[in-house]
Amino acid sequence: QVQPVEFGGGSVKAGGSLRLSCAADKYSACTYPSAWYRQAPGKEREFVANIANDGTTSYADSVKARFTISRDNPKNRLSLQMNGLEPDDTAMYYCLRLCWGRDTWGQGTQVPVSS
Length: 115
Known about the structure:
- The protein is built from no helices and twelve strands.
- By secondary structure, the chain is an all-beta fold.
- The model has no long low-confidence stretch (mean pLDDT 96).
């Protein structure tokens, strides 16, 4: 399927860590999964991190120095290592890739962070 699949979410206490993963089938019309976004309850979806084809990464200021994005190209798998989690990181986390030039989202994985 073209839709990526996220996993690895779960409840965690503030200060804890989680590693999210995103698996995607390879299609010639689709890019590697390349970005993570998140959506907190009652808020709009926001950018978290991105990794370009050359490996260059970028992060939202709110997660810089705490989160690390990486990708295994042969496996077409994207990861997000999240350390020092805070209650404000509570959200549904989504993986993104482009298929036929259009944004293709996964179903998301929930990350509740308790204080």
